[in-house]
């Protein structure tokens, strides 16, 4: 008698299963420009030529300071039907921000046009390139709230909230140098009251009636930065609304951790702000090439 063959569906021992292997994507070489404004540094790509699609991935790759180019943000210059160009800004963690005050000043200098309109996720902004710096008309502030009490580990911190294109919480302190910006900034940034988007956090010290000194913990960077344009605007507006409150046209000097001074101009009438401008210097650091 012939022996019956055992189950034809049973796999042989030690049979190797073939797994399809994806081919590694070929990286391409692109030119970029490194720029800085008041201590904030940015990697800029002219994306009208480059055609890069993966901004979040590139930001996470290049913004790292240990093994990347290193920057506070990645900027794409893109075409716009509504303005001279569109600016997209990606944080080091890959998130896309609505706008960035110091980033816009770098982008305007990069383009080199004296009067510019810039499209951002926060809206259309106007900018002026001058001999002494770049001046940007910011969006009018939204959602201003004074004296917001936050319970952090059983202690109450009173912050002031305003959106100057991106959300900011301003906390006034007497001793700025002794403030643990990284620790407290992170606790406020992730506080449940600001979920789901979170907030940037500005620690402000009043120097005199038209001068503040600030330090900022930036959302998306997740660290203290040397300066923050929208944070400087937020601090100036909150300061005026909270401590001054008189109608008129004003200018406030903001001293940043990077030792540069930003100037904030605005009109104030009956509790409302308009005609808000941010002014400061920017410069090109170098041009380079990278593979992404």
Keywords:
292 residues; alpha+beta; Diaminopimelate Epimerase, Chain A, domain 1; 18-stranded mixed sheet; 5 helices; globular
Provide a short characterization of the protein structure.
The protein has 292 residues and is an alpha+beta fold. The protein has five helices and 18 strands.
CATH superfamily of the largest domain: Diaminopimelate Epimerase, Chain A, domain 1
Named at the architecture level, the CATH assignment of the largest domain is: Roll
**How many strand segments?**
18
Summarize the biggest pleated sheet: 18 strands, mixed
Content of β-strand: 35-45%
Which oligomeric form is depicted?
A: single chain
Instruction: Work out the helix count.
Output: 5
Question: What is the typical, i.e. mean, pLDDT?
Answer: 92
Number of domains: 2
Which radius of gyration do the C-alpha atoms yield? Answer: 24 Å
Characterize the overall form: globular
Order of helices and strands: EEHHEEEHEEEEEEHEEEHEEEE
Helical proportion, percent range: 10-25%
CATH class of the largest domain: Alpha Beta
Task: Assign the CATH topology of the largest domain.
Answer: Diaminopimelate Epimerase, Chain A, domain 1
């Amino acid at each position: 008698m012939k022996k019956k063959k055992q189950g034809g569906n049973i796999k042989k021992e030690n049979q190797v299963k073939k797994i399809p292997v994806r081919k590694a994507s070929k990286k391409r070489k692109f030119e970029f420009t490194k720029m800085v404004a008041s201590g904030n540094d940015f990697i800029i790509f002219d994306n009208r030529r480059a055609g890069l699609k993966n901004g979040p991935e590139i930001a996470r790759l290049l913004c790292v300071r240990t093994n990347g180019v290193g920057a506070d943000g990645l900027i794409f210059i893109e075409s716009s039907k509504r303005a001279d160009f569109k600016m997209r800004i990606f944080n080091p963690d890959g998130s896309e921000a609505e706008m960035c005050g110091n980033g816009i000043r770098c982008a305007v200098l990069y383009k080199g046009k004296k009067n510019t309109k810039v499209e951002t996720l926060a809206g259309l902004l106007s900018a002026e390139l001058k001999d002494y710096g770049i001046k940007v008309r910011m969006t009018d502030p939204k959602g201003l709230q004074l004296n917001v009490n936050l319970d952090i580990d059983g202690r109450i911190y009173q912050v002031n909230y305003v959106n100057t294109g991106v959300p900011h919480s301003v906390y006034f302190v007497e001793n700025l140098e002794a403030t643990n910006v990284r620790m407290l900034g992170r606790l406020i940034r992730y506080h449940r009251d600001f979920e789901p988007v979170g907030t940037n956090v500005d620690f402000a010290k009043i120097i005199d009636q038209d001068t503040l000194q600030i330090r900022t913990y930036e959302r998306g960077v997740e660290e203290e930065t040397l300066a923050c344009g929208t944070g400087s605007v937020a601090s100036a507006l909150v300061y005026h609304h909270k401590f001054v409150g008189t109608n008129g046209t004003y200018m406030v000097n903001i001293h940043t951790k990077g030792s540069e001074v930003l100037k904030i101009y605005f009109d104030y009438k009956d509790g409302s702000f308009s005609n808000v401008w941010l002014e400061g210097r920017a410069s090109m650091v170098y041009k380079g090439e990278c593979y992404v």
